[in-house]
Amino acid sequence: MDLYSLPAVTALSDCVTIVEHQALKIVRIISPKARAAIALHGAHLLSYQPQKQSEMIWMSEAAIFDGKAALRGGVPICWPWFGGLAAPSHGFARTSEWQLVEHRENENGVIVCLGLKDSEATRAIWPHAFALRLWVEIGDELKMTLEMENTDTTPWQFSAALHTYLNIADIHTTSVTGIGPSYIDKLQSNQVCQGGETLTLTAGIDRIYTQPEAVIHVEDHNHQRTLQISNQGHNSAVLWNPWANGAAAMSDMTDDGYQTMLCVESTVFSPSLQEGQTLAPGEKHQLVTCIAHS
């Protein structure tokens, strides 16, 4: 899937165009600093590649672009809940059609904003009024800011994640630091565990790190780079890789797909919907992830 060679359907500026891939409309950014692609389906970042760097975001070669299914890879937006707290899993934001609100350019790069508001379809799933904005800042680094606003007359609770799939050369030679000492292990019945300072993987992982440091470092040795993930507005960082058995069980991931990806997610975690973070009417909350490299 080469999104950057697709013909433009609409040119919005020198750097921003709309393209189509199968059933999806995609905002494509090609600038002197970096290039990126964001599907309106789910406000889903599909690609981010700074100049003179390998792709930083992993997309499954078997992802389904039918405009209905959640996309495997990229940066899915999990909202208004994270995980299987209700149906659909990870909420409805990642399978909703968002609108392009604005785009602008400056010497630092390109900023794209997409929006989603409650509708009859969303209220049938989750009976609350809201307004979401996703700002994607594309330059020497990538910054994604998900702003959620309670436009209802009563408080509501939420959990959320920017479910970032990082593109790495080889999971076997990748190490992670800055995740903190304590985690909830979803592969061990949500047992609370203690880990070491450096994580290297030899099997599948699904962990909620509850005391992450300000910056998480992913040493992508075979790409000869370090990815620096800085999160804000979160209470945890989720790390996930399904490994061979998990990948083989997924229809939208190739059997070897797990070898070149690692999810490091900026997360507002909650064990239930009722225990989620509360937003009063008129209040806003921002969940942020920033990815840089060295």
UniProtKB/TrEMBL annotation:
CDD domains: D-hex-6-P-epi_like. It catalyses: alpha-D-glucose 6-phosphate = beta-D-glucose 6-phosphate. Its EC number is 5.1.3.15. One of its GO terms (biological process) is carbohydrate metabolic process. Gene3D superfamilies: 2.70.98.10. It is an enzyme of class 5 (isomerase). Keywords: Isomerase. GO terms for molecular function: carbohydrate binding; glucose-6-phosphate 1-epimerase activity. The active site is at H163, E265. It holds the Pfam family Aldose_epim. Belongs to the glucose-6-phosphate 1-epimerase family. This is Putative glucose-6-phosphate 1-epimerase. It comes from Vibrio xiamenensis.
